[in-house]
Recover the amino acids of this structure.
């Protein structure tokens, strides 16, 4: 059986910084409340009309990941794009990315709809394609543009202060034989050797409406919305039962991290780094404490970017790599929980 490895990582966030003080001009909130409850100090929002979209941010992150991997767009075999905020209701942004990267290189493009767990689900799918030998180089992207769809009034404050925009990408390649460094051979930065050891995916659809955007949808189609023309209809905005999500998150994060550790016969002390989905700093800190991890074993950047859903893990991974937080052979844990509910983990030998 073949195995897969991460050849290169990249990320892109919009320039426009939105501070907690900026939000307090729009709604009844405060810097202190947001920092105390979430750890977030600022986030990035696209400037509407400025050219950034979910697909284009994914493209910019992908260019960096490809460059770092030393892989050209024409060498890719497949694209996997995870997002909950696509440019269009359909088609998904995978095909937009395919066109932006290399319009005549008509590889397949798959869209993943697993929200905060989307990137880890996408890594798992890429890993399976590579293990079976179907593909050799897969671009995996997580990108979100939340800001345009948030209720920026006091009514939506429990959700709107959390989410931010941005994108991250990785190139996943085949580890054909022990010791071969495909990234270096191709003239890249040679992350080589890294290996996806296992991935673990879960869902519990009974809680689907606890964190969801209900409209527009086949249950509330555009013609009905126009006919009703109801300015008080909140179903177009994300709804989140915050406490309920929080309680499930801390349980499921711990479960799925332990599942990955057990599957590989290692303990939390063996982890060099854990990158949790950046949902809330309090969730990350709770997990850290529960798993007995030291500060340097957990990577958090939610303070600067907020919760970027499917993009949060690849953005954090890209920053962690740039900061030299991972060396060859280190054990890396990725873990996520979110809307669906879905949750997932991946253990990677760097
Ligand atoms: O990424 C996917 C998964 N998402 C998550 O994991 C998020 C999980 N949930 C959370 O992170 C937290 O539940 C929140 C950060 C969303 C909310 O924090 P909380 O400590 O659970 O606050 P709460 O919803 O219980 O609200 C406490 C109070 C309420 O006021 P009253 O009823 O006590 O008077 C809210 O109305 O805080 C109020 N509140 C706010 N106040 C100022 C809610 N949002 C805000 C706000 N600014 N932005």
């Amino acid at each position: 059986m073949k195995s897969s490895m991460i050849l290169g990582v990249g990320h892109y966030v919009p320039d426009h910084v939105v501070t907690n003080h900026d939000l307090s001009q729009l709604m009844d909130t405060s810097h202190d409340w947001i920092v105390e409850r979430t750890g977030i100090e600022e986030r990035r929002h696209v400037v509407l009309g400025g050219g950034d979209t979910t697909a284009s941010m994914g493209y910019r992150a992908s260019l960096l990941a490809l460059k770092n991997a030393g892989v050209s767009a024409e060498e890719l075999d497949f694209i996997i794009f995870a997002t909950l905020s696509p440019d269009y209701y359909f088609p998904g942004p995978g095909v937009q990315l395919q066109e932006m990267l290399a319009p005549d290189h008509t590889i397949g493009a798959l869209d993943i709809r697993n929200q905060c767990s989307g990137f880890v689900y996408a890594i798992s799918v890429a890993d399976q394609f590579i293990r079976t030998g179907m593909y050799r180089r897969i671009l995996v992207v997580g990108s979100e543009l939340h800001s345009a769809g948030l209720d920026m009034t006091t009514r939506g404050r429990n959700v709107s202060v959390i989410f931010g925009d941005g994108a991250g990408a990785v190139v996943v390649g085949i580890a054909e034989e022990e010791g071969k460094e495909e990234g270096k051979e191709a003239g890249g930065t040679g992350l080589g050797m890294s290996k996806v050891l296992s991935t673990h995916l879960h869902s519990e659809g009974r809680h689907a409406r606890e964190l969801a955007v209900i409209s527009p949808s086949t249950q509330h189609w555009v013609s009905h919305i126009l006919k009703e023309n109801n300015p008080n209809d909140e179903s177009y905005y994300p709804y989140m039962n915050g406490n309920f999500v929080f309680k499930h998150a801390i349980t499921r994060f711990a479960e799925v991290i332990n599942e990955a550790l057990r599957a590989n016969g290692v303990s939390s002390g063996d982890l060099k780094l854990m990158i949790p989905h950046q949902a809330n700093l309090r969730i990350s800190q709770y997990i850290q404490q529960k798993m007995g991890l030291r500060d340097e074993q957990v990577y958090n950047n939610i303070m600067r970017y907020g919760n970027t859903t499917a993009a949060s893990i690849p953005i954090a991974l890209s920053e962690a790599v740039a900061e030299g937080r991972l060396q060859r052979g280190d054990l890396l844990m990725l873990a996520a929980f979110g809307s669906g509910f879905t949750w997932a983990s991946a253990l990677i030998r760097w």
